[in-house]
């Protein structure tokens, strides 16, 4: 059976990763003089405490080539086909590190490294689709086709309560117009929404006052795409907002196909408290 590998920015709940035999390679986060593995040694609550009360943003770094080589070698004892799906190059060099590790494996196992062109639950839905295909017995080339189809039709939208984290984090490609909107949202204390695409670009930005208007806007975005098969919602600090959004989306898709999860440590670092992300395929 094909084995599926991804990184910790996928924000897939650990129980789902276990059920689907997904191997997650953690990125690293530095807080002060200490370095932690995302989701292993560090949980999101600590990150949010540092964001609000710390002296500066935590720093993140990619896994080492050795981290990937170890994972690939361990899995090569069970399979001769591995697919490794990662966050977009627009956010991080993780994909390139995985490619480097791939070159060390040689001919003992075929390893394919894929740029998802996404992050968080956008990446997560792509990885889950690949893992389900693997469990159905599809081969590596068939799974690659499924991934490319899924990447092309996936969409991701988000709401941030504090634009400062996007601006300071420097992981999103912000235009001058978007920076101006973000500063207005900060000055007025209102929410900034938009579609995240192409590895960190943001389009269709808008300012909305209040939770209800923001959730309704996210619902309307989801409604505008026909044939949605899966939806994932990731929250930073307010799970009630995720549940409320899921209720609004049930006329579009049954609840069993709507996943709610929490943003992980790395993704949380760059979006801050009060953020809500929705991905659909």
UniProtKB/TrEMBL annotation:
Q: Which UniProt keywords apply?
A: Lipid-binding
UniProt-listed Gene3D superfamilies: 3.30.1180.10, 3.40.50.10170
Gene Ontology MF terms in the entry: lipid binding
Q: Does the keyword Mitochondrion apply?
A: no
One Pfam family in the UniProt entry? DegV
Record bears the keyword Cytoplasm: no
Leader peptide range in chain numbering: none
Classification via NCBIfam families: DegV
Q: What is the recorded name of this protein?
A: DegV family protein
Taxonomic source organism = marine sediment metagenome
What lineage does the source organism belong to?
A: unclassified sequences, metagenomes, ecological metagenomes
């Amino acid at each position: 059976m094909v084995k599926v590998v991804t990184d910790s920015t996928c924000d897939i709940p650990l129980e789902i990763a276990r059920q689907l035999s997904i191997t997650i390679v953690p990125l690293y986060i530095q807080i002060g003089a200490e370095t932690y593995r995302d989701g292993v040694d560090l949980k999101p609550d600590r990150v949010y405490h540092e964001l609000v009360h710390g002296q500066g943003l935590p720093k993140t770094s990619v896994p080492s080539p050795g981290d990937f080589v170890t994972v690939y070698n361990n899995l090569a004892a069970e399979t001769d086909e591995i697919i490794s799906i990662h966050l977009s190059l627009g956010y991080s060099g993780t994909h390139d590190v995985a490619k480097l590790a791939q070159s060390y494996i040689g001919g003992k196992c075929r390893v394919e490294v894929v740029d998802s062109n996404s992050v968080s639950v956008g990446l997560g839905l792509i990885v889950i689709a690949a893992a389900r295909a693997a469990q159905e017995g599809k081969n590596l080339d068939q799974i690659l086709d499924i991934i490319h189809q899924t990447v092309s039709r996936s969409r991701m939208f988000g709401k941030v309560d504090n634009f400062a984290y996007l601006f300071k984090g420097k992981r999103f490609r912000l235009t001058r117009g978007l920076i101006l909107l973000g500063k207005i949202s900060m000055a007025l204390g209102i929410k900034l929404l938009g579609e995240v695409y192409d590895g960190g670009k943001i389009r269709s930005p808008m300012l909305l006052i209040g939770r209800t208007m923001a959730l309704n806007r996210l619902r309307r975005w989801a409604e505008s795409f026909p044939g949605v098969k899966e939806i994932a919602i990731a929250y930073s600090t307010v799970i009630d907002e995720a549940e409320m959004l899921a209720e609004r989306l049930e006329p579009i898709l049954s609840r069993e196909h709507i996943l709610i999860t929490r943003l992980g440590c790395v993704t949380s670092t760059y979006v801050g408290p009060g953020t809500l992300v929705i991905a659909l395929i």
